[in-house]
UniProtKB/TrEMBL annotation:
PROSITE patterns listed in its UniProt record: ADH_ZINC
Provenance organism: Sphingomonas olei
UniProt keyword annotation of Oxidoreductase present: yes
Stretches assigned to the Enoyl reductase (ER) domain: 10-346
Cofactor: Zn(2+)
The family this protein is said to belong to: Belongs to the zinc-containing alcohol dehydrogenase family.
Top-level taxonomic group: Bacteria
Stated name of the protein: Alcohol dehydrogenase
């Protein structure tokens, strides 16, 4: 099959590799149709990372089932599916209580199977394959992973109707966080430095937007909340921005409020000074959110699929660019230069 392999320089090289097989009777083989570019993948763009060299990446994908194992009953060949890529080892204490998103072996397992979107085929356990209703496109389905991350963070936050919410970052995760909060009855203000992203945030229903490169975002959030600060702040920028955005988030939140850290850190230690005395005396909660898994008896990815199928969130407008797999390097470059290109969610057709 055709696949995009990570190079030593951090770009991609298209090549022919062995097609995955069905290794167990509960596994499914699917033809990938659309994959998305996640901020996590983008942080590794054009960076030397020996752990990723010659590997297939990508974890936002939808496709079509081509083969199933003998024990599979939830999908059949020809079914259109979205594929969940959060997959633990299945045997540890966390996997046994369905908190597989924090499995110690999560990365090793998921990248061996389902987290290989930038290729023609992918194989994984049947429980990770969700049938798509006819009216939900492959492109819409490729955004389900993004919104599942947001839904998990919202579940951890305890967000309720009429809450005052601030979101830092108007990329796919930040916009998804904003849309879910609005769908739940919250008032939402969102902050970013990219004008095109803020314009889209307005179109998607933000109550207020802040150009944090030109305005005092903390003061704007306080004004939006009547001087108290937000009930919940979602940090959705992550990466290199975190030393700025995390302290900012702790200043936007009200006393006894919550800061939910959704944006990702790079590996290793990261030193970010915070006003710990003020945080403690105000009983501000810092909540770290990692990917997604289950909410009570429900799979969070299935919940997002249901929300899209029912029309409760409209994800189509977040797709700003489309590229075929053989132009994956151009797709990543476009996503990285979002200030110039206006990119939000970049879809790769395969």
């Amino acid at each position: 099959m055709k696949a995009a392999l990570k190079t030593a320089e951090g770009t991609f090289a298209l090549t022919e590799v062995e097609r995955p097989i069905i290794p167990a009777p509960n596994f499914v083989l699917a033809r990938v149709r659309v994959a998305g570019i996640c901020g996590t993948d983008l942080r590794h763009w054009k960076k030397h990372d020996p752990a990723l060299e010659c590997h297939i990446m990508g974890h936002e994908l939808a496709g079509e089932v081509v083969e199933v194992g003998a024990d599979v009953s939830n999908v059949k060949p020809g079914d259109r599916v979205v594929i969940e890529t959060v997959m633990g080892d299945g045997v540890c204490e966390y996997c046994r209580v369905q908190r597989y998103n924090i499995c110690e072996h999560l990365y090793d397992v998921r990248t061996r199977y389902v987290s290989r979107a930038y290729a023609e085929y992918v194989s994984g356990p049947a429980e990770k394959f969700y049938p798509l209703p006819d009216h939900v496109s492959f492109e819409e389905a490729s955004l389900i992973d993004t919104f599942s991350v947001c839904l998990h963070a919202q579940h951890l936050s305890g967000l309720g109707i009429n809450d005052k919410v601030a979101v830092i970052g108007a990329g796919p995760i930040g916009l998804g966080q904003m849309m879910l909060a609005k769908a739940s009855g919250a008032d939402v203000i969102i902050c970013d430095k990219v004008a095109s992203s803020l314009d889209l945030a307005r179109e998607l229903g933000a109550d207020a937007v802040v150009d944090s490169g030109r305005e005092d975002a903390v003061e704007r959030v306080r004004a939006f909340t009547g001087g108290k600060g937000a009930d919940i702040v979602f940090e959705c920028a992550g990466g290199d921005a975190m030393p700025t955005t995390l302290p900012q988030a702790t200043k936007m939140v009200r006393r006894a409020g919550k800061v939910v850290i959704v944006g990702g850190f790079d590996a290793g230690e990261t030193s970010i000074p915070l006003e710990w005395q003020r945080l403690q005396m105000s009983e501000i909660q810092l909540i770290l959110s990692a990917s997604f898994a289950m909410h009570d008896i429900y799979r969070e990815q299935g919940m997002v699929l249901d929300l899209i199928a029912k029309g409760r969130i409209d994800v189509k407008r977040m797709i700003t660019h489309r590229f075929p797999l053989d132009r994956i390097n151009e797709a990543f470059d476009t996503a990285q230069r979002k200030e110039e290109t206006g990119a939000v969610f970049v879809a790769i057709t395969i």
